[in-house]
Amino acid sequence: MESTKSESYFVFMNYDPEYQRLLNDRTKRGAHELDLYLSTKHDEVLRSTLEPGSYKKTCSFVIVDGFAVEITEDQANVLRSAKEVRVVEKNEEFPECIA
Asked: Which of 25, 39, 56, 91 could form a disulfide with 8 if both were Cys (CB 3.0 to 4.6 A apart)?
């Protein structure tokens, strides 16, 4: 049975030498190029694996080459099989601890 409830997931990418090169460029231009590169790369992975309009990318994470996306459990499983993807984890929010 297909899941239909969208939830937040974190997606972390496999090693990418271009990401590493851009990450090491500490200039303002380098930071801009890295942001643009990752946003485009993450959007392309989503476009090539999931149905258009069936997901919502909420942000890209520059420090770890990853992104957050609202998808179903079935879509998370599809992303897990993409060659560029290392890990897909559900965003587990924990209730506040009461001391």
From this structure: 91
